[in-house]
Amino acid sequence: MSLAGKQRDKVLEEVVRELLKNGVPPAFARITEQFADRLPDRLGTPTFKFVQQPRRGNMKVDAQNEMFKQAADDLELVYEENIETTLGEFQ
After folding, report:
1. What's 24's DSSP letter?
2. pLDDT score at 72
């Protein structure tokens, strides 16, 4: 599967999981709405966006955590694709 397909599947899984966690039945319209909001601008490209923290003052903890989550998601997708590609060469 391509990186774009993996990104799509991951976003869909997160949307459905969050709806179920909140006790909301995952209706098609709700899934589609949230799915479109969360998709990256260009599928198949990294979702990581650097967030500049203020030099002085309070750190934006939520923005920093989101940045780390994006980096972890991108790395996970790349490693999955690398493993699939490598295993595909040996089969």
Report:
1. -
2. 94
pLDDT tens per residue, range 37-77: 887 777 788 888 899 988 888 999 999 999 999 999 999 99
Question: Cα(50)–Cα(40) distance, rounded to whole angstroms?
Answer: 15
Looking at residue 46, its amino acid is P
How far, in whole angstroms, is CA 33 from its chain's centroid? 16
Q: How far is CA 87 from CA 20, 32, 58, 82, in A?
A: 34, 33, 46, 8
Grouping H, G, I as helix, E, B as strand and the rest as coil, residue 89 is: helix
Domain boundaries in the chain? Answer: 3-90
Rounded to 5 degrees, φ, ψ at 14 are -65, -40
Which phi and psi (to 5°) does residue 47 adopt?
-95, -10
Instruction: Give Cα separations from 25 to 6, 11, 58 (angstroms).
Output: 24, 17, 38
Tokens representing 86 are: 């490598």
